[in-house]
Fold this protein.
Amino acid sequence: MVSMGWIALLVAVLGLAVGSFLNVVIHRVPAGESVVHPRSRCPSCGHEITARDNIPVVSWVLLRGRCRSCAAPISARYPLVELLTAALFVVMLLRFGLDWELPAYLYLAAVGVALAAIDIDVHRLPDVLTLPSYGVLGVLLLLPAAVEGQWDDYLRAWLAALALFAFYFVLVLVYPAGMGFGDVKLAGVLGLALGFQGWGEVVVGGFLGFALGAVGGITLMLVRGAGRKTKVAFGPFMLLGALAALLVGQQIWDAYLGVLG
């Protein structure tokens, strides 16, 4: 029987490969370009990147962060995205194990990395990533629902998606300067993923998103001198809050209920 260590290694390698593709998504989607063709090229000289120079992390290290053709620097964000995706894949494996739920949360980790990076870059959460995520997660969560009989969890997932979507929608109507409709659409996606686990994760994830956003905004004000009107990408904080809720949300919720009790 294959040990969990080897499985984690295989999942990490898968994460590196997915992270390499996410770098293409992060670069091309905001520009409205195809993520399938043409092949990746150096943005400085236009030279097509060969297979040997496109190995996640390894190629960047061997090339010392520079293009083989023109020696232009290659951003360190490329290997960082790959490593982050691999790390999140392993975290999801450790959290869910080899369960029917795992594919859904691996997908959430991948699309979350892309959305966070794009939001940081252009302050936008593209519909081409958020809207299909409802269908992808909906189908992937059908696996545990059908195989394990978790239909109550599946129903709660969609109710949570509707609840978080509606909550954020009201916030945008009341205070449109605070966030955009991209955040509203992402809220529904996160509600779907968190709701399958429980209402405690939904509440904790939603709260942590706002709490982390407040901390991030204050930090920017102190470090970079940002003002009240400075635009801050809120999507990454929503995603961080959801990640924390998936990992320790139930424990936080139980502790909160214990205090109330």
Notes: The mean pLDDT is 92. Residues 21 and 35 are 8 Å apart (CA to CA). DSSP finds ten helices and no strands in the chain.
